[in-house]
Amino acid sequence: MIGLCTDSNALLPPDLIAAFGVEVVPLTVTMDDVDHLEGVDLDVDSFYAAYGAERWPQVHVAAPSAGQFAAAYDDLLARGCTEILSIHVCSKTSATINAARLAARGLPVPVRVVDSGTAGFGVGCCVWQAASAIAAGATLEQAAAVAEALTPTIGNVFVIDAPGRDEDAGLDVCSWRPGAVDTVGHVDGLLRAVNWMASWTLGRGADLRVGVGHSSADSAGLAAALEAALSGAANVVEVVRFRITPSVGAFSGPGAAGLFAFPTR
């Protein structure tokens, strides 16, 4: 049996974690000199509640330790797993992959560690597709190959409707890639942002899986409208919702909403 492991930067929603039995290793998020384990003692809403009109917290994000990965791998072994696929945030942006590789040494079962080459829900997309391949009968190496091949096909777009934004200035539609954020469009308001991102998604081909995410509670409505615009579309096979958790929200701040999309074939 192949066990799956990832890190909390993957933004995997609880339904996908439960469906595929994924072990999620938390990153450390330091807010105003206080350390927290993402998703353990720091939830999403508490994180964004710290962002006030007058002051934003000082936030730093650190990779998990090798010991945390060792504990996660032990949990998979205790469940009866005889092989492990461990998929993680891009090595260009985090030391997470190094800790995973260190923990994998000396384990009594094969561990395939995959550098996804992406971050945020892009990692989640790789886990989602690899888990689906395993469920369909893929071997460890086949599932790893699925995850490694997926990254170039994943697209993402998002907007940040930050508190206090000048509504007359409109919204930039952006896309993330390792080391950079590109502006790919500009719209006059939230409705046009939804339409722009939905149109962009539907133009990406057939048999798409889509993850729609939001950060703070005030961007939930934007994400819900985006989900409604895509659900039931002929070329979208599945839509899931996720939250933009602190390890990503530390860089985006509150008010963010957007999506990741990839072809299943």
From TrEMBL:
Keyword set, alphabetical order: Lipid-binding
Keyword Transferase carried by entry: no
Record has Ion transport as a keyword: no
One Gene Ontology molecular-function label: lipid binding
InterPro entries from the UniProt entry: DegV, DegV_C, DegV_domain_contain
NCBIfam families cross-referenced by the UniProt entry: DegV
Name used for this protein in its record: Unannotated protein
Organism of this sequence: freshwater metagenome
Taxonomic lineage: unclassified sequences, metagenomes, ecological metagenomes
